Amino acid sequence: MTPSQDDPERARRFREAALPYLDDVYTLARYLLRNPADAEDAVQECYLRALKHFDTYRGPQMKPWLFAILRNVCHAEFARRAGAPVKALDETPGAAEQAPLWQESAETPEGAVLRERDASAIQRLIDTLAEPFRETFVLREINDLSYREIAEAAGVPVGTVMSRLARARAMLRTAWLAQEETKP
Amino acid sequence: MTCDEAEILIHALADGELDAGHAREVEAHVASCPRCAAEFAAIRQMKQALATADLTFKAPAALRERIEAALPPVQPLQPLQPSNVTPLAAPPSRRSLLRGFALGSAVSALAATGLVAIVLRNDDQQRIEAEIVSAHLRSLQAGHLTDVISTDQHTVKPWFNGKLDVAPPVIDLTAEGFTLVGGRLDYVDARAIGAVVYRRRQHVINLFVAQTSSTERRAARLDALQGFNIRSWRDRGLSYWAVSDINTDELNEFGERFERAMSGSS
């Protein structure tokens, strides 16, 4: 018997393997799309695709595999609404996207202390990071993937993961400190 | 090591991604270079600030229900009609995953790739966890669960002395429903590793403890492999893997109680 969409055993295995990561997948979707409604749609689409391609899944790490599918879904969504301004922390819509990709870490005063902030303030700061730095940063610091798992999920070499992460941290630090100056 | 090399590697150091030898090299550079030391301190400071906030989102219940409803039932009911299924794209290829991405970092990424091939620790989570599960299975099958049998932590802990390069913490969690059974030497990743054995009802929990190059605390992660649950975390220079066939919630409870007892004992 060939496995099919409605094979109950296959459905059971898929549920057990994939559903425990629903919160992880939703978290990544929220950071990639920066919008709860879009994130919900993307996650649902991600799980449908994952089920469809479950036969091609070669374990044992389910999380990076689901993330890779989610990225695909999200990028299709980006393509669909290309040009639509994305709400950023700055007044200028889309400023995060136009920001230089690399801000020298020398711009941030060494030894400056990052004041602790509540979760929603940090989330807004992360939202200002440009792709693909935001994605790499979230996969590492929030989804808790190893460099190798990030490379697998994002389909890039580990070296790229490392350089993106370094830049993401430099940019986030700059934004974090800048915000502290404006809001003492 | 030059600052250019260290610039990216200190991130890998802060993330606990370097093997022990290269971690020492980068640490030595950081110790001798004020600029890189400041950078390293900044990275750790940010990691700490992030760790104090819960930045995850919880999937709304309605979404969970929608997905559950969209999945085929575990009990065969009606076959899912093809018309009900959203048309799906081809499986993601590496190329399509890459497309549409800014390639601004390509140059330094290439530079980093050369370095990474040599230095990234090869004990990646996946392989280690597979070995940990094998060790857990061996301990159950071969009738070799414990080398020292005792429910007394003051017997089990000294037993490890001289047998390992670390002193695995042995904590009595009997009052919390996890009975200490004993200790065992095991081999994972081609080196000796300590295993502290607990029981929960009829289930065995192996707590594997090994030294790690990073002193950074790493919050617990839960994985499942071959039907076993694994809770791994890192604290004060030690890596922990708790493996058992008990369910995720109970294993998590075990880990939390262990970690709480550890922080209380210091």
Strand content of chain B: 15-25%
Anisotropy-based shape of chain A: elongated
Poorly predicted residue ranges of chain B: 76-111, 113-119
Helix content of chain B: 40-55%
Largest interface: A-B, 84 and 79 residues
Order of helices and strands of chain A: HHHHHHHHH
| Number of DSSP-assigned strands of chain A | 0
What's the total count of β strands of chain B?
7
Please characterize this protein's 3D structure.
The complex is a heterodimer of chains A (184) and B (266). Chain A is 62% helix and 0% strand. Chain A has 184 residues and is an all-alpha fold. Chain A starts with 7 loop residues before the first helix and ends with a helix. In chain B, α1 crosses α2 and α1 packs parallel to α3. In chain B, strands 1-2-3-4-7-6-5 form a seven-stranded antiparallel β-sheet, sandwiched between helices. Chain B is of the alpha+beta class. Chain B has nine helices and seven strands, in the order αααααααβαββββββα. At the A-B interface, α1, α2, α3, α4 and α6 of A face α1, α3, α4, α5 and α6 of B.
